[in-house]
Every structure is written in C-alpha cells, then in structure tokens.
Amino acid sequence: MGRRMKGKTLFIFCWIGLAFCLHSEGAEPELISRFLIPINEKCHTQGMDITGGNLYVSCVNRKAQRAYLYEISLSDLSGYREDAGGSVSIRKKDLTRGDRYHPSGLDARGECLWVAVAEYHPAPASSTLMCVDPETLEPEPELRFEVDDHIGAVAASDDRIFGANWDARSFYVWDWSGKELGRGPSPTEVAYQDCKYIAPRYLLCTGTKSLLGLIPTRGILDLIEIKGDDVSEWNLRQRVILKKPGLSGPALTREASCYADGKFYFLPRDLPRPTLYEYRIESLDIELP
Questions:
Q1: Short-list 3, 107, 126, CA closest to 56
Q2: pTM of this prediction?
Q3: Which domain does 139 fall in, by range?
C-alpha cells in the first residue's frame, strides 16, 4: 500500500472513530414506557403536546395535501395492547387552510393549542397561526393571525407567541393579537421540530443536527434562555444530546416531542402506528414544573 493510500485510510479511520465517539456520547435518559399509537393513516408527524389527559399530534398527509390534528386519550393508550384487543379514543381535525397544509409543532397554553399551518416550502411562504380549542378542536376566530414566513415550530407563554421558521434559522416573537415584537437569527444551528415554553424565561426545543454533514444525525434537546423580545439577546443555556432508543432508527427528537408531569415524550416516526416513547431525563440544570 502506497504512502498516499495509507494516509487516506488513516484519515477515513480517524473520521469513523470521531463519528462513533460523537454519536455515542449523550445523556442516559431513563425509558419509562412505550406505547403503540393505533392510527392507520399515513401522515408525516410534526408536533405534539399533552393537556387535559389527552395527547395531541399534528401531522401532514403529503399526498392529500391536508393538515391534521389528532386527539388521543392517554388513559386508553396506556392500557392498549395490540395483541389483547381494546380500543383507544381518537378524534381528528382537518386544519388545512387553502395552500397551507403543513402544520407546525404544538404548544398548549391555557385553553389554547397553538399551532401554525404553512405552505409546504421555505420562504417565501406564508402561515396562519391559530389557537385551537382542545375541547372542540375548533380554531378560535379571535385568536388567529397571518405571518409572511413558513413557521414550523410554535411555543406560547401567557402573553407571547414564539415561532421558528423552516429549519429554525430565525425566531419570531408576537403578542397574542399577532403584533410582531421581535425577530432574529436563532442562537443555535439546530433544525428544531418542536418547542415548548417553560416559565419563567425558557424555550425547550428539540430537533436534529449533523456535524459537517459527515457525522450521523444526533438528537438534540436545547434549553434556550429568553431575554425579552430581542432575539439577539437570547442564548443557549444547556444542550442535551440524546441517544437513539435502539441501535438503528431515527433520533428521538427527529419529529415531535413534549414535556408533561416530569416526563418527556418523543414521537420520532411518522404515522401509521408509530411508537410513543416516555422518558425521564434528570440532566437539565433547571427545575422543570
């Protein structure tokens, strides 16, 4: 073997080793349980949240060009076993708005499930942000506004709505009437899929990231500190890299995620019949509600 070939081989092995180390390190979350969601329709998962004893999942049927919101009973889901029969209470709502059929991630705040429905491409694009009543699954006509960008992740406080555009290159801040209060580049380089507001001043965002396009995609859970409406003042407080639930398959944070009652939930695959993972993660350096 020539010197040049040896050099190339050494370089390749060094990159493989680096990739393995970076991909293998990460938090050791405790897997509590996993649940099969018995929805048979093919739909690309976008976001989810838990409120009122129900799991809400947003997804896009790309072939039909429809945006859907599913409500799934958590108590039914926890007792459901595919081989033992039984049923799970599920409701479905079409959120499509004309050419806008790509739903965002979800965040529940009070009597609102906040979600955006966007045109299915990066900017120039447009979105409708809306509050959906979790009881009726109907959008509230007084809590709805338009944005001239593709909004793919949404989070809500008691008086602010936070949004990230395609691949979370930029963040926006609005009040509940839709008045823009701030915008700016993301403080990270992660393509966030789902974000949740954590009082008093944090966003908990999940997504994926690759290093130089050469390292296998890693699951990212970021805690972003919000310092007012000026996005340029925001910063990354903490990052947790999550391992895959098995030796193969997607990162835990590839699609939807949420936090509820001290536990984290991940839905990394698309419908039909995806698995919902329930984890406990204790490595965050703030106390979560």
A1: 107
A2: 0.90
A3: 25-280
Classified as helix, coil or strand, 249 is: coil
* CA separation, residue 211 to residues 89, 205, 256 (Å): 41, 19, 22
Distance between CA atoms of residues 221 and 161, nearest Å: 20
pLDDT tens sequence for the chain (289 residues): 454 444 444 333 333 333 333 343 455 789 999 999 999 999 999 999 999 999 999 999 999 999 999 999 999 999 998 877 789 999 999 999 999 999 999 999 999 999 999 999 999 999 999 999 999 999 999 999 999 999 999 999 999 999 999 999 999 999 999 999 999 999 998 999 999 999 899 999 999 987 666 555 789 999 999 999 999 999 999 999 998 877 778 999 999 999 999 999 999 999 999 999 999 998 898 888 8
Q: Do the domain assignments include residue 37?
A: yes
How many separate domains does the chain show?
1
Residue 57's closest CA among 104, 12, 111? 104
Question: Percent helix, strand and coil across the chain, each rounded to 5?
Answer: 15, 50, 40
- Sheet with strand 54-61: strands edge to edge: 44-51, 54-61, 66-73, 90-94
Whole-angstrom Cα distance, residue 167 to residue 186? 10
**CATH code: domain of residue 157:** 2.120.10
